[in-house]
Design goal:
Elements: E1 13-21, E2 25-28, H1 32-37, H2 41-48, E3 52-55, H3 62-76, E4 84-90, H4 101-113, E5 122-126, H5 132-146, E6 152-161, E7 174-184, E8 189-199, E9 205-206, E10 215-216, H6 218-242, E11 260-263, H7 268-282, H8 288-296, H9 308-322, H10 326-335, H11 341-346, H12 353-363, E12 372-379, E13 383-391, H13 403-408, E14 411-412, H14 415-422, E15 436-442, E16 448-453
Parallel strand pairs: 2-14, 4-5, 4-6, 11-12
Antiparallel strand pairs: 1-7, 1-8, 2-3, 6-7, 8-13, 9-10, 12-13, 15-16
Bound molecules: coenzyme A (COA).
Coenzyme A (COA) binds next to helix 2 and helix 6.
């Protein structure tokens, strides 16, 4: 499929640049952790896909990390505060139930750029589990399409992913922030402004008021994710065809028109499950269906089974064989696998993880001008949004961020220190803050004080 017929309709808006902040501490999953928890390291490294999880230090939280990614984004782009019209924040680990996290972020940035320098920017927090940032990006793209003062927008994802100690979610934790600069005529990606959505009330993952860790029905959350992303994909495909943007010809599939597929990454293996579900679903039509049937036999059909359990077993077996098929492995290697590279070294960063996938592709220089990137975002509860963007001619000239090297320079911590940090029982920082925003105190009312430490 040539990319020449890919057009960006209306005013071109999208992602100009991105910056990533990851704490300087990490815990390797193989070794002390796996031994103490009685888990085979192979399960963590291969079965889950995470090697190291990023750990927030005692002076870090979702607000300080968000300020760090925004500061880097502004410095990289020589952006002045008065150019920013909106700061939208996606988070599910905000330190306050009412005050927008972005106000803390603006307070921190004003220590650098001057008091009042952001006062004309509006900020709002988007809470929708891991999809909050994507809804923020969607909203900002509509605002920008109508914006006439030449302002730009910023979307920040920032989260500390936290599950109870020794739970099945623990080895998928992580921490970090991604800031996206969103503007008209962007250098990286122009959004095609086609959004396919799916929403359903679910109890897969939620955090009732007052709880510091989420309640997770893990296996159920995997299934909700797959159902929702598939629903959003269908909605996207329908709209893309109706708008004449993706119109598969005879024998062609919708995914033939996608050069990269990026999914929410709660852990890297999930990207494999998600892409297998989408390719399998998409390839049921078109020229590939006969080839797949030759390799794997017929897809199980529910009506042909009297017993529901037998059908579910046949379905699970087929899904496993599909994920090992040549057809899938080739598509996965070409269009999906590399998106999880950074997540293997960081873990889950909730709302930002899909954009960490974008950072992986950028750092590995895998995206070329004219390519179409499709995003399948998911948030528990649950919602999915499937959307697309076209890589712009300048994409390869945007400076890299040195992320792989920065991850190598982090400090390894012991299991004991990790557990103390996790439980909020470590009062002193493991690494003294330097050239960063730090939480320096919480006053008697619960208001948080941050300082930029030189
Ligand atoms: N070596 C290699 N792989 C191994 C292994 C070993 N020794 N032991 C197990 N595995 C594989 C399993 O076979 C499985 O892979 P498969 O699906 O290809 O068969 C994989 O590791 C995961 O094992 P499983 O037992 O299914 O995982 P789990 O019980 O640890 O649960 C989650 C995984 C994701 C459900 C759990 O970590 C969780 O609840 N996470 C938080 C919620 C979440 O992230 N949800 C995702 C959607 S948002």
């Amino acid at each position: 499929m040539s990319s020449s017929d890919k057009t960006v309709p209306k005013k071109s808006v999208g992602i100009e640049d991105l910056a990533v902040y990851v704490p300087r501490l990490f815990l390797p999953l193989a070794g002390e952790f796996s031994a103490n928890r009685g888990i085979d390291p192979g399960k963590l490294i291969k079965g889950i896909g995470i090697e190291r999880m990023a750990v927030a230090d005692a002076h870090e939280d979702a607000a300080s990390m968000a300020a760090m990614s925004l500061l880097e984004l502004m410095r990289r782009n020589r952006l002045r505060p008065e150019e920013i019209g909106k700061v939208y924040v996606g988070t599910e680990s905000a330190p306050d139930e009412a005050k927008a996290l972005g106000t803390y972020v603006i307070g921190m940035l004003e220590q650098i750029y001057g008091k009042g320098s952001f006062q004309e920017a509006s900020t709002v927090e988007f809470k929708a589990a891991c999809i909050g940032t994507t809804f923020a990006l969607e909203s900002l793209s509509y605002w920008l399409a109508a914006e006439e003062e030449g302002k730009v927008g910023v979307v920040i994802a920032s989260d500390v992913a936290k599950y109870p100690l020794a739970s099945a979610g623990e080895y998928t934790q992580g921490a970090g922030s991604v800031a996206l600069l969103v503007k008209s005529n962007p250098r990286l990606l122009a959004l095609e402004q086609i959004y396919g959505a799916f929403t359903r009330d679910e109890n897969d993952f939620f955090r009732p008021m007052g709880c510091t860790t989420a309640i997770v029905n893990g296996k159920h959350s995997n299934q909700c994710y797959l159902d929702a992303v598939q629903g959003a994909f269908d909605s996207f495909a329908f709209k893309a065809r109706r708008q004449g943007v993706i119109v598969p010809g005879d024998g062609e599939n919708v995914t033939d028109f996608m050069d990269h597929l990026l999914f929410h990454i709660p852990y890297p293996r999930m990207v494999e499950y998600a892409s297998a579900a989408i390719f399998r679903h998409d390839w049921r039509k078109g020229r590939r269906s006969a080839e797949i049937e030759r390799e794997l036999g017929r897809d199980p059909i529910a009506q042909e089974y009297e017993d529901l359990q037998k059908y579910q077993e046949a379905e699970a077996d087929y899904a496993r064989r599909f994920a090992k098929s040549q057809q899938f492995l080739q598509a996965f290697a070409a269009k999906v696998r590399d998106t999880a590279t950074l997540s293997r070294q960081i873990g889950n960063i909730y709302t930002g993880s899909i954009y960490l996938g974008l950072a992986s592709l950028l750092e590995m220089q895998k995206i070329h001008a004219g390519q179409r990137l499709c995003f399948g975002a998911y948030g528990s509860g649950c919602s999915a949004l499937f959307f697309s963007a076209i890589a712009q001619p300048e994409i390869e000239s945007v400076p890299l961020r040195g992320l792989p090297q920065r991850l190598e320079e982090r400090k390894q911590i012991s299991l004991q220190d990790y557990e103390l940090l996790h439980e909020g029982r470590k009062k002193d920082s493991m690494l003294q803050p330097r050239e960063e925003f730090a939480l320096v105190g919480i006053d008697h009312q619960g208001y948080r004080h941050y300082e930029y430490v030189q």
